[in-house]
Design brief:
By secondary structure, the chain is of the alpha/beta class. The chain has two domains: about 240 residues, Alpha-Beta Barrel (TIM Barrel), CATH 3.20.20.140; about 80 residues. It has 15 helices and ten strands. Strands 3-4-5-6-7-8-9-10 form an eight-stranded parallel beta sheet, with helices on both faces. A two-stranded antiparallel ribbon has the order 1-2. Helix 1 runs parallel beside helix 15, helix 10 packs parallel to helix 15 and helix 12 runs antiparallel to helix 13. The two termini are about 30 Å apart.
Length: about 400
């Protein structure tokens, strides 16, 4: 395979093939998002990276990011990947990228709150004065908690500038929700965004969200249970769509996350806010729009879909953490055996075709690739199986 790119070693041409496979699923969602004047869907990705030195073995160039956003005509917030040797040069690179692509990119700086002598706050101030619009913090990569003294200084700076602070809130960290609530309450003009569906704290945090309207959650996650809970429990005005590119592909992530929003019963206004409207308001320093929580799912899953979802969820969990997945994927394929007159036959036929394509891709993949294309396609297919209330391709 050619086209080896900066997507953790995943071949770019195969990722493009997956985008093409999922584009028909994007089209009806884009139609719901379309602006009446332009006919275009207004989409803003709240979480993307560029950089080449991350110990996580992920990398992405500016050219690759722009190419990944292009199928959606999306804008994006962009910041450095993990830079073990410091962020000054990487922040300058990101700000230059945004300055060269102002219609597409908005720069955030990334800082390490453990920098001595107030270095993190000084670097964030320098970047905000130089064109950056927000701050990225990564408690797992930099090994700090939100009770780190410099974090409060950074949130205070964001409060003064009415700027966003995006915070890793996924795997590999202790709970951070209580400190996030405290900071959101003390600095109401800072907009704190907890990444990765706030899975570190979502189990209880959702019930505190309405009283902290400047605390938001981004969608950059994959698990069906977490995402259904996010869209059902958290008010739509406090959710923003995000891909985590290059870990997630923008088109794949948009199909996944907005289908979950529709499955949760959200309407077009809420969908447009999540897809990009709220991020545009946030970055303009405007008041954020508020919505009620979603009404929830209208129907239980069809038994065939329930089995497909169960097997695929187990398979993807195993794959992400180094376990055996082939038997579970085989069970998911067996669950696709339905009669032609079944009410979900068309949906399940499409699911089966995508599972078979993923199986074919897997035979040619380098096992050293952490997030191979087949895994990405299977996660998207899992989403499609879990969201039958969202529209089919025409």
């Amino acid at each position: 395979m050619n086209g080896q790119g900066g997507n953790g070693g995943a071949p770019t041409d195969v990722l493009d093939e997956i985008d093409a496979e999922l584009e028909p699923w994007w089209r009806p969602i884009a139609g719901l998002l379309a602006d009446g004047d332009s006919g275009m869907a207004a989409v803003f990705d709240a979480h993307t990276h560029i950089g080449q030195n991350d110990p996580d073995e992920q990398a992405q160039t500016l050219v690759e990011l722009l190419a990944a956003l292009a199928p959606l005509h999306a804008r994006a917030a962009v910041f450095p990947m993990h830079e073990p040797d410091g962020y000054t040069a990487a922040n300058d690179e990101v700000m230059a990228a945004a300055a060269d692509n102002p219609e597409t990119l908005v720069a955030y700086c990334r800082v390490d709150p453990r920098e001595p002598d107030g270095g993190a706050v000084a670097e964030a101030r320098r970047c905000l004065d130089s064109g950056a619009r927000g701050i990225k913090l990564h408690p797992r990569a930099e090994r700090f908690g939100l009770d780190e003294p410099a974090v409060e200084g950074l949130v205070q700076l964001a409060h003064e500038r009415r700027a966003p602070v995006l915070i890793h809130a996924g795997r590999g960290i202790p709970a951070l929700g209580r400190n996030a609530l405290r900071l959101a309450g003390e600095y109401p003009d800072a907009r704190l965004i907890l990444a990765h569906a706030a899975v570190s704290d979502l189990a209880w945090l959702w019930c505190e969200m309405p009283s902290h309207p400047n605390l938001l959650i981004d969608t950059s996650w994959w698990s069906p249970g977490d995402l259904i809970e996010l869209f059902t429990l958290v008010p739509a005005g406090q959710i923003v769509w995000a891909s985590d590119s290059p870990y997630g592909r923008p088109l794949t992530s948009a199909v996944m996350h907005l289908r979950y929003a529709l499955q949760a019963g959200l309407g077009v206004d809420e969908l447009r806010s999540i897809a990009g409207g709220q991020m545009e308001r946030l970055l303009a320093g405007e008041e954020l729009r508020s919505f009620d929580s979603a009404p929830g799912e209208a129907d239980h899953l069809h038994p065939h879909l329930e089995r497909i979802v169960s097997h695929l969820t187990a398979a993807m969990g195993a794959a992400l953490y180094g376990g055996e997945k082939s038997e579970l994927l085989s069970l998911a394929l067996l669950a696709c055996d339905v009669e032609a007159d079944d009410e979900n036959a068309d949906l399940i036929r499409r699911i089966e075709a995508q599972l078979q394509l993923a199986t074919e891709l897997a035979t040619e993949e380098d096992p050293a690739i952490r997030f191979p294309p087949s895994l990405r396609l299977n996660i998207a297919t899992l989403t499609i199986a879990r969201t039958p209330a969202a529209p089919l391709p025409s």
